[in-house]
Amino acid sequence: DQQVKQNSPSLSVQEGRISILNCDYTNSMFDYFLWYKKYPAEGPTFLISISSIKDKNEDGRFTVFLNKSAKHLSLHIVPSQPGDSAVYFCAASVIGAGNMLTFGGGTRLMVKP
Amino acid sequence: DTGVSQNPRHKITKRGQNVTFRCDPISEHNRLYWYRQTLGQGPEFLTYFQNEAQLEKSRLLSDRFSAERPKGSFSTLEIQRTEQGDSAMYLCASSLGQIPDTQYFGPGTRLTVL
Question: Is the pLDDT reported for residue A28 higher than 60?
Answer without folding.
Answer: yes
